[in-house]
Structure formats: C-alpha cells, structure tokens
Amino acid sequence: MLAATLALITSLCYGVSNFVGPTLSRGLPVYPVLIAGQVVAFAVSGAALAITQPAGPGATVLLAAAVAGIGNGFGLICFYRAATLGPLSIVTPIGSLGVIVPVSAGVASGEPLGALKLAGVALAIGGVALASRRPAGGQAAAGSERAAALWALLAALAFGTFLACVAPASEDGVFWAVMLSRASLLVVLVAVALAIAAPLRAPLSRLPLLAVPGVLLFAGTLAYSAATREGDLSVVSVLGSLFPLVTVGLAFADGERVSRQQAAGVAAALAGIVLVSVHA
Question: What's the pTM value of the predicted model, to 2 decimals?
C-alpha cells in the first residue's frame, strides 16, 4: 500500500510539474523557470548529504549522474520548446516515450522483450503518429503541432537517457544521484541560455513560484526512489508512469481541445507507456 501511494505521488508531482512549468514559461522567461527549481533541488540534496555524511561516490556513479543530468537538461529544454508550439495534451504523452530507451537498452543487453512490452511499443508509436496529425483545414496549426511533436520526440530521447542512467547513478544513494545530476543539468541549462542569449533574470517576487516545477520534480524523484524500496518494481513502475494522465487532465481543464483522432492517439500512447513500463 505504501509503495503504491508513493508511486502515485510520483505521478502526481511529475504531472503537475509538466503542466505548471510550461504554463509559467508562457508569461515569464523560460530559463529562469527551468533553473530556479533545479537550484532548490541541488541545495536540498546537498544539505541532506551534509547531514548524513555518506561515503563519496565512485567513478561509475559520477559518470552516470553527469550523463543523467545532461539528458535531463536537454530533455527539459526540448519539452518546454514543444509546449510552446503545441498543446500539452499531445506533447506530454510523446515526451513520456523516453521509457522506451532504457527498455531498449535492456533488450540489447539480453533482457527478454516480452509480448506486453512489444505491444506497448507498437501502441506508443502508433499513438504518437495519430496524436501528431491535425485534420484537414488547419495547415498552420498542423505545421506547428508537427514541430511540437518533433521537439517532444527529442525530449523523449533525452529523458530516456536520463532514465537509463538513474539506476547506476543511485548506487551510492539517491541524494548523490540527485545532487550530481542536478549539477550537470544546471551546467547544461546555463550554457544553452548563454549560447542563445536567453534572458536569465526574472522578478524576485516570482522566484518562489518559478521554483515550484523543479521542486515538484525533486519530490517525485524522491518518492519514486522510496517506492522502489518498499514494493514490487512491476507495480511501482506502472503507477509511477501515469503522470501524463495528470498533465493531460489539467490541460483539458485549462481549456485545451484536440480532435477525436488526436485524443485516440493520446490514449494509445498512454496505454503504450504503461505496457512498456510493466516488468515481467
């Protein structure tokens, strides 16, 4: 029961973050929105390490955490870009396909694929194709949503890299993984912002609000880590992968509308994500 509750908290935190962050970035500079919460996560994990004083991480953990942070950083950049071009109800399920990356890595290393995962991959890919199509009569919207789908797919690839590296990065403790990965993530965000001359300043009065998406991601990561230690991974991974339902639900409540064809694609992609997440 505790594991299921923690996994559902993960989905709630990730889902709300994926809605609140892009929504804030529509009225404020994107990079302060991305950076503020990650600074908080870095500081909290650093404080936890200072209190617990665990042994230092090994070289494998350092490398995995650095790659995880780089993947997470580029994933966030691509996801937020996709959210400026298309509706979150389409972008979020596509961006969530990153789970296919660690599954593919597992298969390549000799793990069995299984009928459920194979069906999940097929459903997810087919769902993306449907969700990315706009009915005739809206060429400008269709072009924008195709671009959004492409950015969301790039986000999925980057997030998948993050997911594949989380396990080895957590070998010496979740706080080491969070702090080290946030360090490389922040380097990516700041470097890209400087390279494209993006604004990095935001009103001081808005900083607590800007930190909310990153804090939610941090809380979700901690909840998921705790859930994996309390219950079966086959249950936890599925419940923790339901966050697109939260984002899509909030997007619909906020007034987003999609065609029936796109709605069917979103549903198929979500079903595929769940099936891919099931561990035999």
Answer: 0.82
